[in-house]
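Recall the central idea of this unit: under ordinary conditions, the amino acid sequence of a chain determines the structure it adopts. In this exercise we apply that idea directly, starting from the sequence alone.
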Amino acid sequence: MSTSSKKTKGRRRRLEQENSLEMLVTTAHGIARHFGRDCEVCIHDISKKDLEHTIVFILNGHVTGRSVGDGASKVVLETLEALEKGECIVDHLGYRIQTQDGRILKSSSIFLKDDSGKYRWILGINYDVTALINIDAALQSITTVEKDEKQNEGRIPLNVNDLLDNLINESVKKIGKPPALMNKEEKIKAIHFLRDAGAFLITRSGDKVSSFFGISKFTLYSYIDQSKR
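Accordingly, the structure predicted from this sequence is:
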């Protein structure tokens, strides 16, 4: 191959590499704009295997404190080692790492080939999720409830009739079967629950409860008396 042909081929390859990098830079801008200032996006050039200077482009470098010209991360080192051994390269997606000052990052490393088919670039995405983790911990602290068999999620009643309905439904849950399948002892147990919950303090509750359980009011009062024993 003539010297002129070699120069032409070299210029073509450099142009292709510049175009590849330009597309990656455009992609990096889109990712950073989408996720905001807590998302660092960087591009490593691993073609020269210069471990001290792999970063050729970076946005929101404050997330890790790095800048253009800085060196390789653990993932870059592992990738170069795998390439040396001829091993298959697999993207690292959604893993967790920690910064020097203790912040937590959710990271992804995507390995890209150049036009010659060789791995040339690593697109790194590092999203600072520290604040989100703290918020999640705070929410867990607020929403976690003490386990107590006497407590339940229930519903907030709009009026006393709703309250009575809630208590009746709760009594059925305590037994674990509908009234039509309850025997006498189970109905007494359900009515015992309603009595202890104060259901019979509600006006005309006896009519509704006796109708629900398919018993007369006389039987209801009999069951209430039995539950007192």
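The mean pLDDT is 84.
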